[in-house]
Structure formats: C-alpha cells, structure tokens
C-alpha cells in the first residue's frame, strides 16, 4: 500500500532538483569550507553562492544569512542570541509559538530575563496592540511566528510592525509559512527558516539577522558564520536549502493555486463530517486543521494509518503518543483531542485528496 | 485475524507478539503511556519508560508490525493514581497493578481494539485462557513461579472471550529462549519489579508529593493501648508487616491495624494477627458466582499460596485455618484447582 502523505507540515519529501543539486557534495565535493586549499575553496564557493541565492530570495544581504542546523536552532539563536547579548534583555512572545521559541524564552526567564507570553483569540491570532502594550523598556525582542505550524493561522505581522514602531527587535519564525506565503525580511530583524518544510533536506536552516543586530552565539567554537554559529559547515545542506528556496519562490503562486485547490477539494468531499478549526482565509492554504466531533484523534490517526493515510494530531511527544496541544489550549478550543491536521504540499495530488477524504469517512465510521 | 498486542517493552509481551505473528495473525503493537512527568515526558526509571517504549518499538519493527504509543495518562491518573493515593491516606495497602488491569488495561484496551477493528487483545501475562464446558476458563500460568492469574482475577466472560495470553503455557526460561532464537533485543532484559509510576521502589517520595498526610509521623501502640514508639508515616505499614517497626519488645511483633485519622499503627504478637475470615468488596466472577457454603481456594496476597476456605455467599470468606497478614486494600482471588473463579478487594 502506498502512503497518502498528508503531513507536509511535519516534513516534506525532498524535491528532485534539490537532491540533484546536493549530489556532488555526497561525492567529490567533500571539502571543509574553512580552509585555504582547492578542495576547501570549492566547498567555500558553493556555500557562499548558496548564501547569496538565499539572500536574493529573501531580499537581504548575504552576510545577514546565518546557516543553522534547522528551524529549532534558528529560533534558539534568535531568542537566546538577542536576549543574552550585552547582559540580559526581556522577551515578549505568544502562547501559540513553536516550542523552540517558547522553551528558549523560558530559558531566558530562568536566567533572569523578563519574559511575557501574550495570549491569542479563538482562531489563534494575537492582538498587535496587546503585544505593543507588553513591550517595556527592558524588552529587547518580540517573537511572533508568521504562521502557526499546527493550525496554519497567519499572524497579523504587518499591523504588528506598525504597532511596535521599532521599540524592540522583531523575530518571526517563518518555518511553516515560507512555502506558500510571500515571506520577506521587510520590517523584521530576525527570521527563521527550515529547509525540510519546503522540499529541502532535514538538518539545515537559516536565521536571517539584520545588519547591526547584536547576537550572542548559542554554539561557541571556531567562529564560523561571522562568529554567530560555530561548527563545520553543512555545505550539502546549504546548497540543498538554497535550491529549495529558489524553487519554492519560483513556484509559490502556482503552489497556492494548485495545493489550495487540492485542500479545498479534500474539505468539500468531507461534507459535514469535519469542521475547520480556523476559517480558511485566516490560515495557510495548505493546512486543513479539522475537528471530527466525537472521535478521539489518537484513534483516528491509527485508523487512517491502517488505510495508508499519514496525517497528524500536530502535537505528539517523542514516543509518538498524542498529547493535548498547547496551541489549541491557548485558543480555548473545545475538545482538543478531537482535532486532526491534514497538511498538503508540493508532492500532493488531487487523487491524494480523494483517497484521504474516503479514508477519513471510513475511519470515522461514516458510510461512503 | 487482526489482533492488538499490548507491548510493554519487556520480553514477555515481545514473545507474545512474536507468537501471534508466527500464527499468521495481523498484529498491531501498542504501548500504553500510563504515566508522564509534568511536561508530558515519559519517565526514565521503572516500567513505562522512554527506553521501554523504544524497546517495544524496535521489537515491533523487527516483527514488521505497525506500532503505536497510546496516551492513557488521563485514564490512569483517574483510575489508578487517585485510588492509590486515597488508599494510602486511609491506611490501606493498595494493589495498583490490579486496579490498572481493572480500570485501564482491560477496559480501555478492549474498546480500543474494537476501534482498530481487532478481534483479540493479547498481552504477555503468565496465565491461560481456554474454552471448557461452554465457558472461557482463566487458569494459572504454566510457570508457577511467574503465574499472574491473581492480578487478572477481575476478568469476566466477555473479556476472556477476546483475550489471549500466548506465553501463559510457557516457562519463563522458554520465553527467553524463544526471544533469543528470534534475536529480539528484549531476550535478556531484567524483570521490572517496580510500580510503574513510582519507579525504583521509592513510593515514599511519590507519596510525599501526592499524599503528604500518609508520610506524617504518628505513634506505634500495642494492642493493649501502650505507646511504644513513633513512626514516620502510615504509608510505611501494611498489616502483617514485621520489619521496620523500630521497637524491641522481646517477642516478634507485627502490624495488626493502621488507623489513618489518628495516624496510629497498632502492633501485636502473632496471635493478634490471625484472621478467621476476610470480607471482600467489588467482587467479580469469571463465570458464575460460587454457591453459599461452597469450598474454594483463596489467595490474598500477590505472591502467596492459595489456602482452603469457604465462600459464605455474603462477600465473606472463612478460612479453614486462621491466616496471618490479611491486609485491607489487597486483592483476594478465588480459585478451584488452577482455575480463577473470581476475586475482590479486602476491606
């Protein structure tokens, strides 16, 4: 049985062009980018070219791009790096942020920094004014995600930039949004990406750091990445990430239309079986976060898996057991254990939507 | 046939799963996450740990069966932990494994099996189920040293009809040999002896948080009311206990009563410990109730011989010979030969 993979928010398959671009670095192009000989130079050239391509896509300078080992590290570096540079500073963030942000903020709090976590409305949106009110003289960083990884809820970043008016640095975790939203660095000071969420490899990410933002590294060592992130470069990963960035940007409009259409088709086939957690115009086009009333999500995921459909409850502990989502709790959602996330991606087809809808009906015990 | 195997990460349930696969069944493996830390993490000591679930996952992968970890923490907290704590607070000695079987494993798991379209639930318990005279019999495991029928004594016909214990007809050494033959990583794994949510036998520190009153100091008195010492909490005492009393009174003394409201532990000599009978609540029968006045064997502790007794028809059992150390809160299982007839909780 082939899997119908509808968990692109967890990770995506590698795009073929990304795999092709990375291939040489699994072979002859094995150099360490820090060195003076030819082998090293070729690696360094590939790394810096990748950096330029990412910068071009985000609309920033190459030196503002820091390669990391993924989205979690990028978030850690943003939060801890800013809060712990020049003594300790405060952080304001939102209850529905990814754990990489919330736990980093909690680490800052334990070190004595002032951390405020602002709540959200029932659709998971934060009120920009509430953020602005929470910002005090001690606040050094505000961190608000572009779009939520569980529900797909888009945050009102444009309004937030206006409300903040530069009173604190602004970080945004754009890990989930990048594939389908016009993500740029305009008006933000730091921005996180993870390659594997848009057809790139796992284990590589980017933190955009605006020129002039002071940053204490999280990983200390040989001083790579202009001292902001030590460790031998993942050249293959950086090249793969850059390729995935370019392909995603080039295909973004087509992705929105095509994948949005597949997601809508899936939802329409379900009829009244499931209810959206957040209205579609407030979320990423590829997210279908749904409640199947009276059906425990843990059971539904097994029943879907038995039918070859990979979906998620979007909130699982390391063992894979479902837990109650902190995102849904913050939203005050009723019956958080009855919610499922179907996330579509670049490899999804209309047939996937049809197979998944039929499987979901069957799993819920609804006659076809 | 599609079956659901509860895999703890130990050798017994590993072999149980392997035997069902060998029979040609479509097997689904699950580990029940029963207890978690404050941030939802699995414990690192005792049963139900991260490494146990990882062992179960790896065995499932080796057997090429789907495997899931299911979150039963809410059911477990309500069905087992709450009762465990309140039992200790009232001076009783609870048996959380029996409660877990009663309220979580064989109720939730059966329902879950139906939801996964599974006909049977399979576990690694040392007990046997067979069909005899038109009923399902629950019998002691073939390995008398490992027999676990006592903790299954609450099962009824509906449940027995849908249960399989594939290692029940094996000796533990045979189970390990099968696991070793199959190259299962759990073949030589040590037995888990701890209460899964307490870990490393340290129930005092657990109770200090969950039931602080049970670890408050109190007095030790003899049966004639003489105060002979102090103790550091009623949770440390079970009727029949001899060790750890901290008093020297010439002849051996045993705990004969634990009074929770006054935190008084009463001790007496062997004569004071003897019970003629025991009284049960929550009585269940595997098939049909005994008739009043019928003879039975009763096992009133997890690792003890069953003794001759008579069922009085009113929830009480009279021993043929008086028994020592009948502890309130413990389960008593009733047998005929090696067949479990039913059981209840000692009041």
Written description of the protein model:
Chain A is of the alpha/beta class. Chain A folds into two domains: 4-12 and 251-363, Aspartate Aminotransferase, domain 1 (Alpha-Beta Complex), CATH 3.90.1150; 16-247, Type I PLP-dependent aspartate aminotransferase-like (Major domain) (Aspartate Aminotransferase, domain 2, 3-Layer(aba) Sandwich). In chain A, 36% of the residues lie in helices and 13% in strands. Chain A has ten helices and twelve strands. Chain A is globular. The two termini of chain A are 20 Å apart. The mean pLDDT of chain A is 95. Chain B is of the alpha/beta class and 347 residues long. Chain B is built from eight helices and 17 strands. Chain B has helices at 11-22, 50-63, 73-89, 96-115, 157-160, 172-181, 203-210, 270-273, and strands at 2-6, 26-33, 67-71, 120-122, 127-132, 135-140, 163-164, 218-222, 227-231, 254-259, 264-268, 275-285, 295-299, 307-311, 316-323, 331-336, 339-346. In chain B, a hairpin with a 2-residue loop joins strand 5 (127-132) and strand 6. In chain B, helix 1 packs parallel to helix 2 (50-63), helix 1 packs across helix 6 (172-181) and helix 3 (73-89) runs antiparallel to helix 4 (96-115). The two termini of chain B are 42 Å apart. The mean pLDDT of chain B is 89.
**Major sheet characteristics of chain B:** 6 strands, antiparallel, barrel
Strand content of chain B: 25-35%
What would you call the structural class of chain B? alpha/beta
Tell me which oligomeric state these chains represent.
heterodimer
Helix content of chain B: 25-40%
Largest interface: A-B, 13 and 18 residues
Order of helices and strands of chain B: EHEHEHHEEEHEHHEEEEHEEEEEE
CATH topology of the largest domain in chain B: Rossmann fold
Tally of alpha and pi helices of chain B = 8
Tell me about the largest β-sheet of chain A: 7 strands, mixed
| Count of individual helical segments of chain A | 10
Rg calculated over all Cα atoms of chain B: 21 Å
Total number of strands of chain A: 12
Please tell me what the overall shape of chain B is: globular
**CATH homologous superfamily heading of the largest domain in chain A:** Type I PLP-dependent aspartate aminotransferase-like (Major domain)
Listing every helix as H and every strand as E from the N terminus to the C terminus, the arrangement of chain A reads EHHEHEHEHEHEEEHEEHEHEH
